[in-house]
Amino acid sequence: MNTRKRTWGRFTAVLLAVFVLAAAFCLPAAAAETTYTLPDTGMTITLPEGAQLLTATTPSDDPVWATAKVLDVNEKILELSEDGILAEIYAFDGACVIAVSAKTSDYSQAIYNLNDVSQETKDDFIERMQPSSMDGRTGGTVTWYEHEAIPFFCIDIHSEAVEEGNVVYERLYGTIFDGMLVSFDLYNGSQEIPEEYDALMRQIVDSATFSEFKEAPKMSISGDQIWMLLIAVVLILVIIAFFVYRSVVRRREKKEKRVLADRIASYRQAKAGHEDEGDGALRFVNETEHSDNAIKVFANFHAYRRSLWLPLFTIIIGVVAFVVVWQSGSSDNWWMLLLLGACIVYCGYKIGTASTTTTKAMMRSYSKLRSRKAAYYFYEGDFRITGLQASNLHPYFQITRMYETKDYFYMYFGEENTYFIAKDGFREGDAESFRTFMREKIGKRLK
Questions:
Q1: Mean pLDDT score, 133-158
Q2: Is it the case that residue 22 has pLDDT exceeding 50?
Q3: What per-residue confidence (pLDDT) applies to 185?
Q4: Of 445, 443, 442, 423, which is closest to residue 433 (Cα–Cα)?
Q5: Per-residue pLDDT band at 170 (split at 50, 70, 90)
Q6: Could you give the CA distance from residue 269 to residue 271 in angstroms, rounded to a whole number?
Q7: This prediction's pTM
């Protein structure tokens, strides 16, 4: 009897051992925890059991792609590379996807390490990171998340989706160290973030370890940066000087216009009753046809010899500013480069079309006149213009500027009215004597 009991006991023990071994071989092995070090960051995270990690360098034939339910592997690899995503963590049978990224910016470089910033800087950081949009569709909250090595922050974002007509949710955990912003971002579509997803993100964040925290680099200015700074200062001073100069010139011009208007009024009053009589002996007579060709010649002169300096000045300033911003090497200045480039292109366009614009405007104006021929009578004390307008006498001081070119004298009454005097159109006198005569009358205003 005892022998039978011992035999039955041994048989039972062997049978149980067989069942245990069979169960061990038949049950699937649980996925072990894995670690991942973010490239070029010195930050390592531990993934819990069941979570899988994919990167742009994961071989396309790796079974983990299928487990993560990625249908087009090549397209996904390209997407990760283009978006600058270091890795994606898949969990809960692919329903939870956490994007891991590490990026730098001027702001992250300025903070450098959240361990070392003041409370004022932290408050400013929280204010800057608040989710918002101009149309009011996006909102959310930012809170600090405690970590034993470095402060993390948590951003909850909810945004009204225009196309879908509902609210989408996103949660991000991140920190800044060594001048980099490292983030774990979960976009959950129209579903609120489940507690188990958030618990997984917190577990990953809590597992983060750092090889070391570097000291923030001391500010140093290279020779190139000094030159760029000097150029920028000179550029600003030139722009300020330009606006000051323009302001002074405009005030002076307004004062001169008031004085000129008073002098013309006095002249008209003195000529009352003698409007048809020139003052003194007739010295020169000229007839000039304001033909289409003459208008085009004048338009080129007016656009490219008189008024070219302002658009050229703008282009030069724009090019210098473009070089300064370009040399700064900051990716955040793309909008300034775009603005400066647009300014340069616009000024170039204005220069290229200045003559054509002036020609078209003058053609429209002269097309309304019955005659394009102007007759000029220059007396000792004043001069008369007929043909283009009613016959009127004008004092010489009314000429604000006069320019001499190869074939013409251009007589300006302010910026609005200009008369052409062809050198070969003199019926009395000649161009040489006329130049000397006008120099005596208007002095340096003849150029």
A1: 90
A2: no
A3: 94
A4: 423
A5: very high
A6: 5
A7: 0.48
Residue 174: pLDDT band (50, 70, 90) is: very high
Instruction: For each of the domains in the chain, give its residue range(s) and CATH number, in order of start.
Output: 34-210 (3.40.1000.10), 276-290+372-447 (2.30.29.30)
pLDDT for the residue 165: 67
> Would you say residue 98 has pLDDT above 90?
yes
Instruction: Please report the pLDDT score of residue 325 as a whole number.
Output: 64
Q: What is the pLDDT of residue 12?
A: 40
